[in-house]
Design a protein that fits this description.
The protein is of the alpha+beta class and 258 residues long. It has three helices and seven strands, in the order αββββββαβα. Strand 1 and strand 2 form a beta hairpin.
Length: 258
């Protein structure tokens, strides 16, 4: 394959601004309404089924929301390098600046994204749209067919070499990868391999999901893409985006300590 190129804040703002009224204005027997519920309590069932829970009780923050880009990036701020040296991001760049880093549960790298349009021939990916088009991918579908880069979000990893061998990091075809660009997170699989000295590439479909121009020759992102590949996370079938999304979200929750 080619390388290019979001607690309850019970704002109990009970503003007690009462005007002083004379006897003629307010009879001594006038009834003053008293709230049935003290202003510091919540009416009705609270999360967990408890009624009238005092405001300020501890509640899980964002427990049911998807893992955010900010949460994931906080876990990969520092690098424990596991690669023997660094990778280039493009074939025409002589300086290698991208190391592969490791944690207990994942490996990650921060690079650019070039567009992989290889695999199944489609309207988006073919020899006319991509002069470097190749009709195969390193990993195949459950039926033995090349992956469809126009429909399947996948990541390209460097072929095993002197710098790093992805297989020794618990990765293989179908391993789940969280890919972050700006404030977006998408889950993909490892679907192809590229040159042994270059890193930073994703499929046409992955680029589209991250709002990156997916054109195989003029698209991509020059920088700012983080790839977090989860160890021992192979899904089957490899061609199921729904399975990658479900498994990826579960893995990401564990990764950030949810």
């Amino acid at each position: 394959m080619r390388t290019r190129t979001s607690a309850l804040t019970a704002v109990t703002s009970v503003a007690c601004g009462a005007a002083l009224l004379g006897p003629a204005a307010l009879p001594a027997t006038a009834d003053v309404p008293v709230p049935d519920t003290p202003p510091h309590t919540r009416v009705g069932p609270a999360p967990g089924g408890l009624a009238d829970e005092p405001v300020g009780a501890d509640l899980p923050v964002n427990a049911d929301l998807p893992v955010s880009a900010e949460e994931l990036l906080a876990e990969v701020r520092s690098c424990r390098q596991i690669s023997r040296g660094s990778y280039r991001t493009d074939a025409n760049r002589s300086k290698a600046t991208v190391p592969v880093c490791g944690t207990t549960d994942a490996v990650f790298w921060k690079a650019d994204m070039d567009i992989d349009c290889d695999g199944r021939r489609t309207k988006a990916c073919n020899t006319k749209s991509d002069p470097y088009f190749q009709p195969q991918t390193a990993f195949r579908t459950s039926r033995g067919k090349p992956l469809d880069s126009a429909r399947l979000p996948f990541v390209v990893v460097p072929a095993p070499g002197r710098i790093w061998d992805y297989r020794k990091s618990g990765l293989t075809g179908g391993s789940v990868v969280a890919v972050i660009h700006q404030d977006q997170v998408r889950y993909a699989v490892i679907g192809d391999t590229g040159p042994a000295g270059i890193i930073g590439e994703g499929s046409y479909a992955l680029a589209e999901e991250l709002s990156i121009d997916p054109h195989p020759t003029t698209g991509g992102a020059a920088s700012g893409v983080t790839y977090i590949a989860f160890k021992d996370s192979r899904i089957s079938p490899i061609e199921s985006p729904a399975e990658a999304e479900s498994r990826g979200e579960a893995l990401a929750r564990t990764f950030v300590g949810r």
